[in-house]
Amino acid sequence: MEALSLPAALELVAGGGAGLSPERRAALAVSLPLVQRDYRFERVWFWGCIQGVRGAYYIAEGLGPDRAAPRSRLYSLNCVDWSLLTPATKEMLALAEEVKGRFQGDPSFEYNLAEINSEAAARLVEGGKEPVMKEEARLIATIEQIDRAVGIVPRGAFVKTPLGSVHENRHFEGLSLVEAKKLSSYFHFTDPVNLKNKTLLEKADLDPSTDFLDSLEHDIPRGSWSMQLEKGGTVVVLRSLLWLGLTFYHVPMTKQFGYVYFGTGEKNLDLPFML
Amino acid sequence: MDDQPPALDPPQEPESAEPQDAHGRGHGPYQPHEPGYGLDQPGYNPYEDEVPDPQTRMLAIKNAKAYLLKTSTKSGLNLYDHFANILTKVLDEQPTNTVDIIENISKDVKWAQFRKKMDTLRDEPLISPTFEAAEKCKALFVKEFGDEHEGVEEEMGQPTLPNVMEAAFYFEQAGIGLNKDESYYIFLALKNLINVQPIQTCRFWGKILGLEMNYIIAEVQLREGEGEEEEETGEEGEGTTAEGEKETGEAGEDEEKEAEPPKSTYKPPPPIPKEPNGTGTNKYVYFVCNGPGKPWVKLPPVTPAQIVCARKIKKFFTGWLDAPIVSFPPFPGNEANYLRAQIARISAGTHVSPTGFYQFAEEEEEEEEGADTYEENPEFEPPPVAEMVESLATWAHHVKGILKQGRCVWINPVQKSEENEEEDDEEEEEEEEEEQQEERGPPLLTLISEDEGMKDIPAWSTQASTNLIPEYSVAILQSNRWPGAYAFASGGKFENIYFGWGHKYSPESYTPELPPPAEAEFPSGPEITETVDPTVEEEMAFKIAQEEALAEAEEEEDEEGEDD
């Protein structure tokens, strides 16, 4: 969610019971503008909080002029001092899939891969590295996975210019109430996967400036999003069931929207049994 | 229009065809080979000499205007008004490069005609859901006039309304909780609940999220004598069904006297009776609603079978209390029962209080049965917050744990079978075979430091709400076994709450229970074991042997006869 609209946004996602304490809120209001200044970001988003056993990681993302470019991520343990995280690599993503369980809360903690998956450990040893995975790498990979899988925005909020870069749509007035109740009005804010598989007939209806992302309609498994109208129908809240803790909110007919993650950072692999 | 030469009377024609415009519009300049070449020059028009009378001209203008005002049969619009609207719009908005977008402007003006008619139809249904919900929430704010009189005559049984806002404030220090508006609505909804139901104590238990709707749960203790009606009807219901089954059993026996398949000797294990209201898992009664302002529904008491089954399945709540739970093993009940079972498990696993806050009523009895009651310790001194954060021994469970059987107090299920008068002998044999071990759970008021962790994750995580201002910080406890269960303690105050999806955490993925192994059909004995049929030679040999035996017997008889 936008750092500037943090207080109002936190009120809207508090339906799940997770939020930030006044101390953290105050710290964020102070430190995020400084992060924006220091790293020269155009926008700073507060991504959320991953709860570890002994501590929590607070994550922020910074965006440059092209909103669809890979985002820079920062983490903090106390919402005051932020450290930049390196971009995620494929190896990190592959290793993170193997490591299961809670985050510990200590960024330098090392997961012993030999216990978890001896093959991966063997590969690493061959490559000359130790068969461990640092929690920081796991954090990077988890954030990337969550963003790719369930980071969503409403349709029409972002436009793609003919040059390829993506900007916020200044003429976005919000989804209407009817549109807001449909899953097809929300897009994954990541590189599209299914777009090219659409039939020509469907593509004819699309507007290439706004429909350049995958919609939520065809997410597998069906029903992995829980949509509710809260606060008497004024806020549409979408909660992901695949990554429990990701909450997206949008106030129809206004420009307010955003998503935030408050959770343990574990994928819900039991989802098909639970539906 | 075309009978007047363009060059002669330019101002009189609405759509002037001046030579320059003709060029701009693409009709000119006419090339030498095209018909009409030179006609736009003065003096070359064939009808130049004929200047019409002024009256005829006026008539022509009126005809033209009448033609423009003719309404279209298809759409009901006329050209005159349409042009007037277009020109009004263009002059109002003054867009750049109007001539390039004139067709679009025309289309927009026509479209605007349609929108007006449908506006009144569209507005109403969109707004009503919001307004309905707002009406319901507004109803919460109405203060009943009867309250003032009742408040004066305070009796002993005055129900205590929990201070939801105070607990919300402390939890907010840890970043847990709903937003203030929702907490206040819940506060008012609890107040309504107390006014309607005969409640002794009440507490906001927490919120469980569902797919379509959420549940807000209140934990109450009803006043004595109020909850017993339901229990009686439940027992009566069971009695009638048992009698009904016996009748149908007898009728079945009468009908099938001819060829009865072997009756199975399987007797299902007797159902474990649920704990009586007011004790164990049914100590509290729970009311749920889908949102503040919606009506409160009482959840039925929980049975051990439901708890045992709930441990084996993992399902999301949909938000509808009467939704069926489709699962394996099949859950005995609908979503209301599953919700109640999960609430019981969460309460038993995560409700804690500072050690020493509660003490046993009578310290002499150390048996489990006597340890069901506890009371507040008047001499409790709260330890400092730093100590509460560091050591888990400062917290203790004040709800009894649930045994594997599904109850808090173990009961021997075989005792119940005394009611059946048939086949006592077999039952005695079964008792010897299946001696169930009496289960003992941890006694009440155990410290939570004795809770086992999973793999390398401790069962509880503690933190102080703030490290910057330690003198006002609050000790926060988070459960790792039930993510979403929190407790806080500050000074002498403490509270438990749950915000989550209602499932237990397990490091391994959920695996559904396997179906039971296929049962044996019937015991195998010599009459049904297969043997190879005797061959013809064997049969002949057998026949010969039999005949020889007969012949020998006859000879012996003959001999005996001869002797006589």
UniProtKB/TrEMBL annotation, chain A:
This is Radial spoke head protein 9 homolog. The keyword Ligase does not apply. It is found in: Cell projection, Kinocilium; Cytoplasm, Cytoskeleton, Flagellum axoneme. Belongs to the flagellar radial spoke RSP9 family. The gene is Rsph9. One of its GO terms (cellular component) is axoneme. GO terms for biological process: axoneme assembly; cilium movement involved in cell motility; motile cilium assembly. Coiled coil: none annotated. InterPro entries: RSP9. Signal peptide: none annotated. It comes from the Eukaryota. Keywords: Cell projection, Cilium, Cilium biogenesis/degradation, Cytoplasm, Cytoskeleton, Flagellum.
